[in-house]
């Protein structure tokens, strides 16, 4: 039999090197921290001990588990079992299964256990922590949205400040570590300090001590919306590619509605956590506008983004678990938004019925849609193909990685003039433009712009594009037949088909198309 290796709560399938390995899971891993994909067959991204508890092979008391490496697959399902909610994943390169390890292996591992305090990164922790740099493993830009309402009162307000101070110190704030700022919610929100103001824990602690209690209603919704929109700008110190997080502290319940603020935060790519202290009692529930206020505001309702403390007293033991959540950057699902995580290809009709001046109006439309997205090497990407009977790739997804360059490339597209073979053009784009990015992280969209009847079949090529994971929008002008447009569009066809009689009508469609793209993006993430 194999000797078993002691692993940590955080060791993933992909951290193991052998095809079959016996491991020993520690006791008392925090269930909410487990990151598990699938059911029975787990994506290798999953925590091994989490998968073993999910499968029922061990309990939270830990124990020996046999891990078998398996090939990757598509569509790992999300299943709730044994206190763990696994998540869905559309595909991953490798998998594993877990079964009970044989009895005699457990004995050999005794005395060789490994500390479980730190997630295993496979690297030995360096003892000399560069104080200025801070904790480089924790990548986060955090706004603490603190409760400054009459609900909490001066005394508990001070306890809240102490707690936030402890969280700030444990985060490991530094130039290359997490950055934090504070916003106080009361009648009107007030940004107390921004991310850029301090990069050392000492300074942050001092700034928190100095905060004055404002009083007023707890208009948390208003403060959350204000913070999501105004706090994380580049001028105010937000960093590119670092998760944006708002931690809302709520004593009791909000005086206003959180639903709209939650939607705005998700749209702005902000991950909202709610720390509720002293939840409303049964008698008080009658005064709460919306009992489900936590679920309306958090990034996802999977339990990860909500956190409860019974009172503001004796909160020290709650500091570390909260810090671990805030530093789990791979769990920050809301950082990805429709604006920064999609690929859009434009398929532009260059046939002779369009004409030079209308062709310019089509290019203006393409620019106006592209302009709305955050185009960068780590963000969204844009490509364009012009077609007649032939196809001419104007530029691909990786040719230009700044918005200025993409917009200038669109302006420089020259009108071809010729016939209309839309079906061929869709097949060409699926193969040559989307082919190279099909395993990338971004969601794929194709916008087909045409002014007339296609000489070839569009239904087959459009179905193949959709099967390849591309969402198709059809935008028709002038003589484009509605049947063709509907045949090309993704389901539901009504919301993916657009038509205007005149080329000048394209401009009015831009906001609706952007909204539809964002809606599709959000629906695909739920």
From TrEMBL:
SUPFAM superfamilies: LCCL domain, vWA-like. Residues 112-132 are annotated as: Disordered. The keyword Repeat applies. Keywords: Disulfide bond, Glycoprotein, Repeat, Secreted, Signal. GO terms for cellular component: extracellular region. Residues 141-326, 343-513 form the VWFA domain. CDD domains: vWA_collagen (cd01472). SMART domains: LCCL, VWA. GO terms for biological process: sensory perception of sound. Residues 3-96 form the LCCL domain. Gene3D superfamilies: LCCL-like domain (2.170.130.20), von Willebrand factor, type A domain (3.40.50.410). It is found in: Secreted. Plays a role in the control of cell shape and motility in the trabecular meshwork. This is Cochlin. It comes from Xiphorhynchus elegans (elegant woodcreeper).
């Amino acid at each position: 039999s194999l000797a078993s290796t002691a692993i940590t709560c955080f060791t993933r399938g992909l951290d193991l090197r052998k095809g079959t390995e016996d491991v020993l899971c520690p006791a008392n891993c925090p269930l909410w921290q487990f990151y598990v994909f699938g059911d029975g067959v787990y994506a290798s991204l999953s925590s091994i001990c989490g998968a073993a508890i999910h499968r029922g092979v061990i309990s939270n008391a830990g124990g020996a588990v046999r891990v078998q490496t398996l090939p990757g697959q598509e569509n790992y399902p999300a299943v709730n079992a044994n206190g763990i909610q696994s998540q869905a994943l559309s595909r991953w390169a490798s998998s594993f299964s877990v079964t009970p390890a044989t009895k005699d292996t457990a004995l050999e591992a005794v005395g060789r256990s490994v500390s479980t305090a730190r997630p295993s990164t496979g690297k030995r922790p360096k003892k000399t922590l560069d104080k200025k740099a801070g904790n480089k493993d924790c990548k986060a830009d955090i706004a603490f949205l603190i409760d400054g309402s009459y609900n909490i009162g001066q005394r508990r307000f001070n306890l809240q400040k102490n707690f936030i101070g402890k969280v700030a110190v444990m985060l490991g704030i530094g130039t290359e570590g997490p950055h934090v700022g504070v916003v106080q919610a009361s009648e009107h929100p007030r940004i107390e300090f921004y991310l850029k103001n301090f990069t050392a824990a000492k300074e942050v602690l001092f700034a928190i001590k100095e905060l004055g209690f404002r009083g007023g209603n707890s208009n948390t919704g208003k403060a959350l919306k204000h913070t999501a929109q105004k706090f994380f700008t580049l001028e105010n110190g937000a960093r590119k590619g670092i998760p944006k997080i708002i931690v809302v502290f709520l004593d009791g319940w909000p005086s206003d509605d959180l639903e709209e603020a939650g939607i705005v935060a998700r749209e702005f790519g902000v991950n909202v956590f709610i720390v509720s202290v002293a939840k409303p009692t049964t008698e008080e529930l009658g005064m709460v506008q919306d009992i489900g206020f936590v679920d309306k505001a958090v990034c996802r309702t999977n339990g990860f983004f909500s956190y409860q403390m019974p009172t503001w007293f004796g909160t020290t033991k709650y500091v570390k678990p909260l810090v671990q959540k805030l530093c789990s950057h791979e769990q920050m699902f809301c950082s990805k938004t429709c604006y920064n995580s999609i690929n859009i290809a434009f398929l532009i009709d260059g046939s002779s019925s369009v004409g030079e001046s209308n062709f310019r109006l089509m290019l203006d439309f393409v620019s106006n849609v592209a302009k709305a997205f955050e185009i960068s090497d780590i963000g969204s990407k844009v490509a364009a193909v012009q077609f007649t009977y032939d196809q001419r790739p104007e530029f691909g997804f990786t040719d230009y990685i700044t918005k200025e360059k993409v917009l200038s490339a669109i302006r420089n597209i020259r009108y071809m003039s010729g016939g209309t073979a839309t079906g061929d053009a869709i097949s060409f784009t699926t193969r040559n433009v989307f082919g190279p990015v099909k395993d990338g992280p971004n969601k794929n969209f194709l916008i087909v712009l045409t002014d007339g009847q296609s000489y070839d079949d569009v239904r087959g090529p459009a179905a193949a594009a959709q099967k390849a994971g591309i969402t198709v929008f059809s935008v028709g002008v002038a003589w484009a037949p509605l049947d063709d447009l509907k045949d090309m569009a993704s389901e539901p066809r009504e919301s993916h088909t657009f038509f205007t009689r005149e080329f000048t009508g394209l401009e009015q469609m831009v906001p609706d198309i952007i909204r539809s793209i964002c809606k599709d993006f959000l629906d695909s993430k739920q």
